[in-house]
């Protein structure tokens, strides 16, 4: 599985590009703020064609570039509970963040809703770009947060990586941490249930590609992530 990733210029949100191979259709995951040019260059270099955009949740730092990436012909996939966030995610930015945006990009943030939005649900299987993605609903960071599971791993990983599948975890699970629950739509109790019922059962051999920060594995998180250990010993 061909996998490319890079952080957005604001908030460092990880944008992922996943394809069966070079020259194929691909899936873009979480195109955040200021990624359009970098993403275009990556697609041209690898000769990839976007077939879908997957959104792990509706926060502006994960969806800001979804409309130009979709281009009016590609569907944007988001859980139904976060669908409302695509109406105007920019409205969630406070004056300080808007000022930072203007300072970096020379203009105020604007928003146009994508024309083709596909609402997804828990346990749904998506057949996209010749690959299969399983949707798991993980509310807590937002009402409609999800992770996407793929029964494949990025090309070029060394054997000692000892992974057999991939999970795009959004802001539910990070290396050594979890997503915050104190923003609008966050819910600490829902996050605890998501960690216990969805994250903990993932196989140790799962490669975790989070919404921010470095990748990790479930084996490492199960052994070292304090939020998961607290659940295990509760």
UniProtKB/TrEMBL annotation:
Domain of life: Bacteria
Entry cofactors: Zn(2+)
Family matches, as SUPFAM superfamilies: Metallo-hydrolase/oxidoreductase (SSF56281)
InterPro entries the record matches: MBL_Glyoxalase_II, Metallo-B-lactamas, RibonucZ/Hydroxyglut_hydro
GO molecular function, one term: hydrolase activity
Residue ranges constituting the Metallo-beta-lactamase domain according to the UniProt record: 12-212
Pfam families: Lactamase_B
The entry's keywords: Hydrolase, Metal-binding, Zinc
PANTHER family on file: HYDROXYACYLGLUTATHIONE HYDROLASE GLOC
Protein name in the entry: Hydrolase
Organism of derivation: Flexivirga endophytica
